[in-house]
């Protein structure tokens, strides 16, 4: 027999009540880190099925976008397009703290530098600021495997760049995208056994 509708009630007991705020942090194998309009959304749209909003004004991306990158039949990884960071992000400028939280769980960082300069910031300065903001937010982020990539390589000649990059790519023409993906896949594979620090589940308990 099943008691579908109990016909009795028991004395209620006093319980300890608490409120929690749960924070979701995206997990990704590779996080794209760069200034607004550096080409992050265009890149992820070219190498995955992700369809982020793309426009020619700053902060087009306001929430992270995830895409699965299929390198070949046996290799794939998850890429996250993190909204653009600017100087002062580690102090909350430009919603920086909200965006930086999503970088924490990435295995590999891809610093995407706009070779044509962003708001007058040359590529070398972009890299300095991005690394500084990550270090100020969480110093151990600077110990993650990373790749420095220059975007919009179809616009400028190599002699016009002021920074050394591992790959100079063009998401418009596809230049160097395949070599970049294989390099990222290699770095992701090297971090597969180091998962503990990326699998933290953080609960924020508000002050009572």
Helices and strands, with pairings:
Elements: E1 21-22, E2 28-33, H1 40-47, E3 65-72, E4 75-81, H2 96-100, E5 106-114, H3 123-137, E6 146-151, E7 167-168, H4 177-190, E8 203-204
Parallel strand pairs: 2-4, 2-5, 5-6, 6-7
Antiparallel strand pairs: 1-8, 3-4
Folded structure, characterized:
Helices cover about 20% and strands about 20% of the residues. It is α/β, with parallel strands linked by helices and about 210 residues long. Strands 3-4-2-5-6-7 form a 6-stranded mixed beta sheet. A hairpin with a 2-residue loop joins β3 (about 65-70) and β4 (about 75-80). It starts with 20 loop residues before the first strand and ends with a strand.
Features:
two-stranded antiparallel ribbon; 20% helix; 20% strand; six-stranded mixed β-sheet; disordered C terminus; 208 residues; 8 strands; alpha/beta
Q: For the largest sheet, list the strands in their spatial order.
A: 3-4-2-5-6-7
Number of DSSP strand runs: 8
Secondary-structure content class: alpha/beta
Individual helix count: 4
Largest sheet: 6 strands, mixed
N-to-C CA distance: 45 Å
The unreliable regions are 53-61, 88-97, 196-208
Mean residue pLDDT: 77
Shape: elongated
How do you describe this structure in short?
With 208 residues, this protein is α/β, with parallel strands linked by helices.
């Amino acid at each position: 027999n099943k008691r579908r509708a109990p016909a009795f009630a028991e004395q209620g007991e006093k319980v300890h009540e608490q409120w929690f705020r749960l924070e979701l942090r995206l997990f990704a194998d590779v996080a794209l880190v760069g200034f607004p309009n550096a080409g992050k959304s265009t890149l992820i749209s070219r190498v995955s099925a992700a369809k982020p909003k793309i426009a020619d004004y700053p902060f087009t991306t306001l929430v992270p976008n995830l895409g699965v990158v299929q390198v070949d039949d046996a290799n794939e990884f998850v890429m996250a397009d993190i909204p653009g960071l600017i100087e002062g992000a580690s102090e909350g400028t430009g919603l920086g703290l909200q965006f930086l939280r999503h970088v924490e769980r990435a295995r590999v960082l891809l610093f995407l530098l706009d070779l044509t300069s962003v708001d007058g910031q040359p590529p070398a300065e972009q890299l300095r600021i991005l690394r500084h903001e990550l270090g100020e937010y969480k110093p151990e982020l600077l110990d993650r495997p990373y790749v420095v990539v220059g975007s919009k390589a179809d616009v400028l000649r190599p002699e016009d760049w002021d920074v050394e990059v591992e790959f100079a790519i063009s998401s418009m023409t596809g230049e160097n995208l395949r070599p970049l993906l294989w390099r990222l896949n290699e770095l992701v594979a090297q971090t597969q056994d180091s998962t503990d620090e990326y699998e933290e589940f953080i609960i924020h308990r508000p002050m009572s």
